[in-house]
Design a protein that fits this description.
mainly alpha; 23 helices; single chain; 503 residues
């Protein structure tokens, strides 16, 4: 056991719990808007950092390193798309979604969809899909957290997972979205420091990037190519496009990420947040993949590639620094897990429980129902994570591919296309989710050469356009919705008369 690292982790956990208590004292859990969106008062820096850390997850310290270790420079295709993901998301739907959601009174990303495409079926389909897929995503974070804690503390995996899950649950339950957003901001700084420390130590160890490339070339020159080990992906431009899209365009279809737009202080916050998000991405995104590549030389006998970055830190860094690095790894995990838990609980409570089971529930009741569901999801996720878990990479890619395929056209068209209507939204979500799921399940990636998300997004977008155009007469978009869309496209305050239409 690394005693110094454990002590630093204890200090770090106390700090994030303190943020949860601070958020609770600010009244973050007194009403539903405060608990779910932090009272819509999140500024540009925190918006950018919570957007990016939420989308990064423990995948960056486990899955990204494993991919770099397994495939060499091919892995950087994922990083190339990821760098522009934040600014693209904020630029395309950020400002309009923030303003439109306030006009229509939406507090969750799923409620937003129903009010834009009026139908209980929209909320039911979107809610069930999101709860299931975000539950899978939470599972990946719990597995990552357990592996990281077990490595640095020396305690069994089950206990390490229990500690990690317990800390995340406590501060999320205490402070809601406000605690999640501000802990994410703190965690983003810790992630940068931790990953920077490891990469500097690794480059010194191998004698610089040029020397590292020479060593890798002597092991297997195909690892230096953009086509992967053994040139296994040579000419597979469909897979390259999928790698670029999943963490760039795909962001706009992830309910737990687009919720960040709803919580911004002002619609104009999106522009500043985009700049901060890009700056953070430039410093962080490529590094985990590069560390996985360097581990090919430094850790040639590594048995679990998902532990590549952790093993590098363990082998190259002093005990005191190891605590900072482990905090960075836990930060990446916790910053996504807390958002996923909060989103899953809020969607299950407001979009499923209140909407279909108890329409008369008070706001106070809804806060407690949401907390109860967050706790239940955390417990179930922990139990599942103990049973022969799959790889973090495979879970993350599956969940994000299906989410992006199902919701990307619905979120983008919600603020940009006045003809996008309810039948098209339902058909698009069903088509995208089904196509991406079966594409992965049947193994069509290897046969056709297109990844699940690319196939799913192409399918859901095609259906959104064709069904909308075919059903304009029978299912026109309500006038009050188009009026809200027109107002969301303008810069300036919302007319009180328009807000009154949605009360």
């Amino acid at each position: 056991m690394n005693t110094t690292a454990v002590l630093f982790l204890v200090f770090y956990f106390a700090l994030v719990l303190g943020i949860g208590i601070w958020a609770m004292r600010l009244g973050a859990g007194k009403d539903l808007e405060g608990f779910l969106l932090g009272g819509r008062r999140i500024g540009p820096i925190v918006t950018a950092l919570t957007l990016q850390t939420t989308s990064m997850s423990g995948y960056m310290f486990l899955g990204a390193g494993a991919l770099g270790f397994a495939e060499g420079y091919w892995a950087l295709w994922y990083a190339a798309g990821d760098i522009g993901g934040g600014v693209l998301n904020l630029s395309v739907i950020g400002r309009r979604m923030r303003k439109f959601s306030q006009i229509i009174g939406a507090l969750t990303s799923i409620e937003y969809l129903e009010k834009r495409y009026p139908s209980p079926a929209v909320r039911l389909i979107a809610g069930v899909l999101t709860v299931f897929l975000l539950g899978c995503y939470v599972l990946a974070q719990f597995i990552a957290g357990g592996k990281g804690m077990a490595l640095v503390t020396g305690v069994p995996y089950w206990l390490a997972s229990l500690i990690a899950v317990g800390i995340i649950l406590i501060y999320t339950l205490l402070g809601g979205y406000l605690a999640v957003a501000y802990t994410d901001a703190l965690q983003s700084v810790v992630m940068l420091i931790g990953i920077g420390w490891i990469v500097v130590a690794a480059l010194i160890e191998v004698g610089g990037l040029g020397a590292a490339n020479a060593s890798i070339g002597s092991i297997d020159p195909t690892l230096l190519s953009v086509w992967g080990r053994g040139l296994g992906y040579e000419g597979e431009w469909g897979l390259v496009l999928g790698a670029l899209l999943i963490f760039s365009v795909g962001y706009m279809g992830w309910p737990h990420v687009v919720t960040r737009h709803l919580a911004m202080r002002h619609p104009a916050t999106a522009r500043q947040a985009g700049a901060y998000a890009t700056a953070w991405n430039l410093l962080f995104v490529s590094t985990p993949y590069l560390l996985g590549i360097l581990a090919i030389i430094i850790l040639p006998d590594l048995d679990d590639p998902e532990l590549a970055i952790m093993r590098l830190a363990e082998n190259l860094l002093p005990a005191a620094v190891m605590g900072v690095v482990m905090a960075a790894i836990m930060a990446a995990i916790m910053s996504t897990a807390d958002s996923l838990l909060l989103q899953t609980g809020s969607i299950a409570s407001r979009d499923l429980y209140e909407r279909f089971i108890n329409p008369g529930a008070s706001e106070r009741q809804m806060v407690w129902v949401s907390r109860g569901l967050v706790f239940s999801i955390g417990v179930v996720g922990y139990i599942v994570a103990l049973a022969d878990p799959p790889s973090v990479f495979s879970i993350v890619v599956f969940a994000t591919s299906v989410l992006g395929s199902a919701f990307l056209p619905a979120y983008v068209c919600a603020v940009w296309w006045r003809k996008a209507n309810t039948p098209a939204a339902i058909a698009s979500m069903a088509t995208g989710a089904t196509l991406a799921f079966f594409w992965e399940f049947v193994g069509l990636v290897e046969i056709i050469g297109l990844p699940p998300m690319l196939a799913g997004v192409l399918g859901s977008t095609t259906v959104m356009i064709t069904v909308s155009l075919a059903t304009q007469r029978t299912s026109p978009v309500p006038e009050h919705v188009t009026a809200a869309m027109d107002e969301a496209a303008r810069v300036g305050p919302i007319p009180p008369a328009l807000l009154a239409k949605f009360e």
